[in-house]
Amino acid sequence: MGATEINDVKKQWQATHDQEIQARMKQEVDERDAMKKSGAEQYEQIKAQLVRTRTELHEQARKQQEKLSEEIQRNDVSESDNDRATTWVKVADIVDKVNSFMNDASIPGTNDQEYMNKLLQAKKAVKQTAVKQTAVKQTAVKQKAVKQKAVKQKAVKQKAVKQKAVKQKAVVVDVCCFG
């Protein structure tokens, strides 16, 4: 094999090698573009899910507050200022957390699964707050029932005392007048 043949083989190998490198680079660029497009679509889907979840959380918190207010009015049970303030602080805290998650989620490159987990935690916190509010309301209703029962028992006792006093007075009148 002569020097020209060796040079021809080298050139042919170099040309083939260059074509392979260009083909690989093109394939990598295409794959990256496809991943970016897929990632952008997933990002938009997750962002839409986050918006829906935030809306659901706001709606659940509003419904729970309305439900609690209706129960309180229906049962004529009043919340103490401290309980009311605590409830609103918890709801406001949850809403702030959701808003924080939404703001963070709008930053490209963040871990969307992490934010979904945090939103699920916030959703659980809303449910737990609702359960606590229901328990507070039920306790207040039970306390009211106990108070009403005590008032009724006191009224029955007072009525019995009055009837006994009337009978004793009647006996005294009978003895005094007809004695």
Write the layout of secondary structure elements.
Elements: H1 3-75, H2 81-105, H3 112-178
Strand content: under 5%
Largest sheet: none
- The helix tally amounts to 3
Principal-axis shape equals rod-shaped
Mean pLDDT over the residues: 76
Number of strands: 0
Number of domains: 1
Question: Secondary-structure element sequence?
Answer: HHH
Structural class: mainly alpha
Helix content range of the residues, please? over 70%
Any idea what the radius of gyration is?
39 Å
Tell me the distance between the termini. Answer: 158 Å
Structure description:
The chain has helices at 3-75, 81-105, 112-178. Helix content is 92%, strand content 0%. By secondary structure, it is mainly α. It is rod-shaped, with a radius of gyration of 39 Å. Helix 1 (3-75) runs parallel beside helix 3 (112-178) and helix 2 (81-105) runs antiparallel to helix 3. The protein has one domain. Residues 59-83 are annotated as: Disordered.
